[in-house]
TrEMBL record:
Its main location: cytoplasm. This is Electron transfer flavoprotein beta subunit lysine methyltransferase. Belongs to the methyltransferase superfamily. ETFBKMT family. Keywords: Cytoplasm, Methyltransferase, Mitochondrion, S-adenosyl-L-methionine, Transferase, Transit peptide. GO terms for cellular component: mitochondrial matrix. GO terms for biological process: methylation; negative regulation of fatty acid beta-oxidation using acyl-CoA dehydrogenase. One of its GO terms (molecular function) is protein-lysine N-methyltransferase activity. InterPro entries: Methyltransf_16, Ribosomal_L11_MeTrfase_PrmA, SAM-dependent_MTases_sf. It comes from Sus scrofa (Pig). Interacts with HSPD1; this protein may possibly be a methylation substrate. It catalyses: L-lysyl-[protein] + 3 S-adenosyl-L-methionine = N(6),N(6),N(6)-trimethyl-L-lysyl-[protein] + 3 S-adenosyl-L-homocysteine + 3 H(+). CDD domains: AdoMet_MTases. It is found in: Cytoplasm; Mitochondrion matrix.
Length: 266
């Protein structure tokens, strides 16, 4: 559906207000990647020069307006052409990775303020997007990190964002990890991943299995999306921190005002 006048509408009304984003994920559960062959699919940090140039042209480096000014990110901002341009002119899948979502912001802030939670641990960031939460984990001393996102372009954005923050890029897995055998992780992170009911159900089941098999700790950042607040996972959560969102994030997220970090305790 291409009814939105541009990315400004996309940013103001994320997730189903205009239908574009929700559709992108729900239609197949796999990335809407326009080319059959994706050289950087899988784990790794291969940067296709053309795509790198595209990302650099159409994003702005920023550290303002979020809960974690210590992290620089390439994001879609009002100074970018596609903030204002018609969304259907964007040549790739919807750029979730170009927004630093409120759930991820809270989770990243929490890790930076409480490095003991990640120091020396193996960490998996599911639905990493721009990679900020995985970057926060790395800055806080995580031993091993895997960022996972089904969008291969997110994989490239994460690599660029690592470089921006003078970090050696960590591996990025661009397969659907929910379909793979479970590895052992000390800590699994999910920032703003409960925005679709089917995805929320799949994640809930996967996380329960993960905790049961490996005693993994799971932290979830969420700004109170209905698909999360109304989900049965609510009975298995302990609130660990709540943050007031910065004004720019509030404006871009249709009036959300806070974001919370939850400890999943099945
Ligand atoms: C709302 S964004 C959150 C990004 C980031 N965690 C943040 O808070 O800024 C959701 C991300 O999850 C990714 N995603 C959706 N379904 C996924 C799945 N099954 N496995 C991994 N990533 C997924 C999307 O591509 C998108 O980048």
């Amino acid at each position: 559906m291409a009814l939105c006048p541009g990315w400004r509408a996309f940013a103001l009304f994320p997730f189903n207000r205009c239908g574009v984003l929700g559709k992108a994920v729900r239609s197949t559960g796999l990335p809407l990647f326009p080319w059959g062959h994706c050289p950087w699919r899988g784990t790794g940090s291969f940067l296709d020069p053309e795509m790198k140039a595209f990302l650099e042209e159409h994003t702005e480096v920023t550290r303002s307006g979020s809960l974690t000014p210590e992290i620089q990110l390439r994001l879609l901002t009002p100074r970018c052409k596609f903030w204002w341009e018609r969304a259907d002119l964007w040549p790739h899948s919807d750029p979730y990775w170009a927004i630093y979502w409120p759930g991820g912001q809270a989770l990243s802030r929490y890790l930076l303020d409480n490095p003991d939670i990640v120091r020396g641990r193996s960490v998996l960031d599911i639905g990493s997007g721009c990679g900020a939460t995985a970057i926060a984990a790395k800055m806080s001393g995580a031993l091993r990190i895997l960022a996972n996102d089904i969008d291969p372009i997110a994989g490239m954005a994460i690599t660029l964002n690592c470089e921006l923050n003078r970090l050696n890029p960590f591996p990025v897995l661009t397969k659907n990890i929910l379909d793979l055998a479970q590895d052992k992780w000390d800590l699994v992170l999910l920032g703003d991943m409960f925005y679709d009911e089917d995805l929320a159900d799949s994640l809930h089941q996967w996380l329960k299995n993960c905790c049961q098999a490996h005693r993994t700790r799971v932290l979830i950042g969420d700004p109170g999306r209905p698909q999360f607040s109304g989900h049965s996972i609510q009975h298995q959560l302990l609130k660990v921190a709540e943050y007031s969102l910065p004004e720019p994030t509030r404006q871009e997220n249709n009036g959300l005002t806070t974001s919370t970090v939850w400890d999943f305790q099945p």
